[in-house]
Amino acid sequence: MIALIAGAGMALLLTLLGTPLYIKVLIRRKYGQVVRDDGPTTHAVKSGTPTMGGVVIVLAVVAAYFLTHGILELIDARNAGITASGLLVLLLFAGMGLVGFLDDFIKIAKKRSLGLRAWQKIVLQAAVGISFALMALNFPDEQGLTPASTAISFLRDTSLDFAFFGPVAGVILFVIWANLIVTATTNGVNLTDGLDGLATGAAIMVFGAYTLIGIWQTNQACGLPGQTNVCYTVRDSMDLALLGAILSGALIGFLWWNAAPAKIFMGDTGSLAIGGAIAAFAILSRTEILLVVLAGLFVMITLSVIIQVGYFKISGGKRVFRMAPLQHHFELKGWPEVNVVIRFWILGGLFVAAGLGIFYSEWVVGL
Question: Which among 48, 59, 47 has a CA at the least distance from the CA of 21?
């Protein structure tokens, strides 16, 4: 528990103190946000605001993770140390952040609202996602437990296992499944990141939930003395909890500068990295379907875009919302941006609370 507090505190300080320094560098280089022409007119004032803030988040999380483990090694050499699951989360987190960085940098360099071409983005994200998925099925521990499994999970692995179709087909289907989750979460966070602090605050709550889930899975791990009938076979659950705390801390420090009026935006660097980390937590903690509830705000906003685009094509030009994603619909209805953000944070908190309630209730009922 001390490690979680230390890691979160370290990450918070790194972003809280590092972000203003990074803002000065971006301003000096004139790396500012290019606002979309088809967005709300009230966003025109945001043009030129420093972006690519996700760089600070990624660096702070990676540094805090390794520094925390380094300190733990000095205090107690018997400490479990860096784990395969922890490194896999960082791989997907930093890998997606790199894709986002390339996208952001092209936007800034060419002074346009579009960065990487769609096919380039898909190829790069697929390369990172496939690498993550394949490695997640390897690196068994002493009990033979790998970071991920080919089974579809809800609150734990279910009986629906891709390996039913054979080992090779099982791996292929799992890779496709994992990449669907990664694509959904990265796009969900990216679409949510349209108002000052909205995606940052919502992500803090999701990572906080995965911190609690990791702690609970550690305390109720299968094989512990006095274990009940309900237990969890999750590899490196405490290290996942540590990373959840570190990510929450880093985002809290960043939110200080990202809250309205934002001094910096996270850009695709941050939104894709955060989406990748959320996907990694869902897969490695064996809570893939539960993610739909925990990240309900991101799901809701993504669905608003799907509904808007689908209805627009079917109806021949009509719209369900004044603008999609959903947060812009309420802006155009006259809600102040801060009101939209706070009310959506409340919704995000309710989704997280519901997800944690489902997770805990299953354990209680199963006793």
Answer: 59
